[in-house]
Specification:
By secondary structure, this protein is an alpha+beta fold. It contains 9 helices and 10 strands. The strands form 3 sheets. The chain has a 4-stranded antiparallel β-sheet. It is globular, with a radius of gyration of 18 Å.
């Protein structure tokens, strides 16, 4: 889900809707607990934990809730029997899909994930079949392109990899390990982003130019995201302007 693909607006809208329903909170808490348990409980020393905390803050999770999740993870005992497994496959139109899960029952999870793929004419693939199409990175976006000069100077000085401007928004790209420090530098300069996350960004996009295929892809993603064991769903889908307009009607 590249920052400037025609999927991003729908993705962020869906995330906000999910947060209202509490789905994102559950997943973020689970991720914070796991990150704190497997690494340093200090987010400044644990990029994965820092990214999870930023995700929590972006959906208006309270600092008390975040701190309790960190303490649970650091104290051990939670997620002892949870396996973190990624599933890979393709949707209609050759759309690559990467599904990250956290589960205490692998057989249940793979069965549910496979069902979501096949129900909407997709195929669950083998390990490595689509993962090579994605790169893990930090993305910090601004909807005000007039901030470009200030954002560029601050972000690059703090260690950002690149800045993209598509005419409607700015996208700051970082390495995973420097995501936190770049965001801190932008905040300190009074440059508050509209969205910030560590994500899996596709190296190529699969464009969907008809509504039927677009709806199948969306329904498959919705079904996957509704599964209790699923943490994240990443895809390289890109909708044409015409399809995007129809989906948003």
């Amino acid at each position: 889900m590249a920052g400037h693909s025609k999927w991003s607006n729908i993705k962020h809208r869906k995330a906000r809707q999910d947060a209202v329903r509490g789905k994102v909170f559950t997943r973020v808490i689970r991720e914070i607990v796991s990150a704190a348990k497997q690494g340093d409980p200090d987010p400044d020393k644990n990029p994965r934990l820092r990214a999870a905390i930023e995700k929590g803050l972006s959906v208006n999770m309270t600092k008390d809730t975040i701190n309790r999740a960190v303490e649970r993870g650091a104290g051990g005992g939670d997620n002892d029997n949870m396996d973190e497994i990624s599933y890979e496959g393709y949707g209609v139109g050759g759309v690559a899909v990467l599904v990250e899960t956290m589960t205490d029952n692998v057989n249940r999870t793979v069965s549910e994930v496979r069902h979501a793929f096949t129900k909407y004419d997709g195929n669950l693939g083998t390990s490595g079949s689509v993962a090579y199409l994605f790169n893990k990175r930090g993305e910090i976006s601004f909807n005000d392109v007039s901030l470009e000069e200030d954002v560029m100077l601050t972000a690059l000085d703090a260690g950002a990899v690149d800045i993209e401007n598509d005419g409607d928004s700015l996208l700051v790209i970082t390495e995973v390990d420097t995501f936190g420090q770049v965001k801190d530098a932008l905040n300190a300069a009074g440059l508050i982003s509209d969205n910030a996350e560590v994500t899996m960004s596709p190296s190529t996009n699969a464009e969907i130019d008809n509504l039927d295929d677009a709806e199948k892809v969306m329904k498959m993603i919705d079904m996957l995201e509704d599964l209790d064991d699923v943490q994240e769903v990443y895809t390289n889908v890109s909708f044409t302007d015409e399809v995007m307009a129809q989906l948003e009607e």
